[in-house]
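TL;DR need structure tokens for one chain.
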Amino acid sequence: MDRLSSLMEQFRVRARLLHTGPLCGLQHFDAASGCGYLHVLRKGEMELRHGAGAGLPRSLKLEQPSLLFYPRPAPHTFHNPPRDGAEFTCATLDFDGGALNPLARALPPLLVLPLSSVAGLEASLGLLFAETEQLRCGQRVLADRLFEVVLVQLLRWLLDHAQEAGIQPGMITGLADPRLAAALVALHDDPGAAWTLERLATVAGMSRTAFAVHFREQVGQTPASYVAHWRVTLAQQRLRAGRPLKLLAQELGYANPSALSRAFAALTGQSPRSWLAQIEERETRPGGPADAGQLAP
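>> reply
TL;DR here they are.
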């Protein structure tokens, strides 16, 4: 069962090579770009610092080759020995939909993993490092794609080690559960189907009651709430792409545009028209990237 492809096809993530080589002294990465970050510490040591109130550890000491993954914008600083700078290869990550991207929302603000703990990374990182060690035609394009390969491998690992990685209940922990994953993948692939509790439970191979209880424990919300949030998240993405509300209602399983508008307003506090106008106004405002906003909890 492929738990990632449909998600990543509907909500793409684009990597852009940011830096390769040593970083000496203090190096700050801000959140102004609206992007996440994927850093690969190839060798050396360094101290990772975060500001107060960021919900992240104030200081972490890294002493072995590691991956540092920020799925959402978060300012952070590397502090390296001034003489022997640590070797890094870094990329920014642009998640479609920004804060509304379901993958970005489902992940913790920071993951730090030794390279040795993620099986299968060696070959991809070997190609990535070979590409970034010398300037060649197409280097940036190929390095960007290889970073995206590394990201997919990291997400695969997280689906298989959600508890070990400390992932809180949500979409990732649901996809990590084989029975729930069957229902979630079916929903992600066909959001417009009539997803009743009974139908979801049947796909998962469980009784209605057992499925509802287990889903709430693992995902942190009821199946009906998840279906509604998933459909509205898709509606937001497709509205931004210019899809008309009438077609979206048909695609997402609503009887008519009014029914979709009511579901949309119940979760966002705005009508689709008002929400889209606000997003478009933010995107045209000078100075800084747009913020796509978030669904109501």
